[in-house]
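Example record

One chain of 493 residues, shown exactly as stored in the release files.
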Amino acid sequence: MAKFIKINENDNVAVALEVLPANTTVHVGDVEVTTTAEIPAGHKFALADIAEGTPVVKYGFRIGNATAAVKKGDWIHTHNLKTGLGDLLDYSYEPELVEEKVTEDVTFMGYNRENDKVGVRNEIWIIPTVGCVNNVASKIAELSQGLVRENIEAVCAFPHPYGCSQMGDDQEHTRQILANLIQHPNAGGVLVLGLGCENSNIDVLKGYLGEINPDRVKFLVAQESDDEIAEGVKIVAGLAEYAASFKREPISVSKLVVGMKCGGSDGFSGITANPTVGRFSDILISKKGTTILTEVPEMFGAETILMNRCANEELFHKTVDLINDFKNYFKSHNQTIYENPSPGNKKGGISTLEDKSLGCTQKSGTAIVKGVLAYGETVKTPGLNLLSAPGNDLVAATALAASGAHIVLFTTGRGTPFACPVPTMKISSNSNLAGKKNNWIDFNAGVVAEGESLEVTGQRLFDEVVAVASGKEVKSELAGFHDMAIFKQGVTL
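Predicted structure tokens for this chain:
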């Protein structure tokens, strides 16, 4: 295994792939560098002297400016590097579009639904309209576990704290997210559980659902039932009987929608896991499939790369709005736009938001941006889509599911056990994490740092996603984890 990597030929830093003790001499191309201090794994060291106030370059782009004079071999991190980003920026469309390739179709074993949608799971979902009935929903799910069998793959509830005492966009977002999940094709049957007096009651929510199949979607108002738990269990049994009629059959991966996000990133994430997901995305899109990239605050500093990959000027302007709307959201709450990365990110070697964002956007591969989605909007255009959602892991992953993702790919350098409403595949950026948290990690991209090519690792990830789409359970599913969260921005009454 190499001891370091220089990511781009224009970089003035390299990244240590293992701990480099002080006074370690390495050769980076024609440059001999001796470390002046210990360089932790995933962290950066200077390949040349860098004057105070001048750019530090990684991924071929500025990741910030030196806050003090840096000598060749010095450790570069938060103590001598700060963001170079400002507030709102002016952007211009300078398209850099790659030629789109079409490759041979591949099939997965999925579920064809009656509305021409496809699912990768055949589950029964219990969705509360309001947090007041969360425990009822969970109890119904608990009492219905005996219904799980070969083609009824799970019975799960999705508690959340909203659905009432909300105003404006928050209320609309809650209704739209719930409606999208109710219509999600991974659910073979859905019980919508209401209280009866909430703002987003069932009668209101029905207006957001469009056409529904009454055999697939059932409604129960707890205040109108003598025994809502018993009645709910009975309804779920009927839904399972309906859902049992669906069987897995071959379906083109062109029908597959995969969400992409990261959490607990480290200095390896932008070198191993995120580029691997980028390779996966390019492969799936070459087969006419769809990927969705989100976490808008983690695009700041790398947004022009995505803007210039927009298929047309209209999408470019939508991407500009995507970025600036989120910046204005921070400003409206008197918050610093660039108060990022997290403590865990910093421990792993990420020093600035630009550093984080340039690594995060590697997940988008090289594909042309074909769609830009508002929060709660469902995907309509095949190819690479950008989705408005925050960086919060559970909120962003839920947003991906609500936008139509069948599976979410989650890259991480530190690990997490969480899951969103759809299979949530954890991809480790380093092999140490994959070995330590085998009960969390589904795929180890750390092998890229050990010499495996991105092409090989990306193809292996594609094959694994096809296997998951065909029914292979990810670690969080084996643990029985199913969660959701909704973005809150405003007032609670």
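Notes: The two ends are 57 Å apart (CA to CA).
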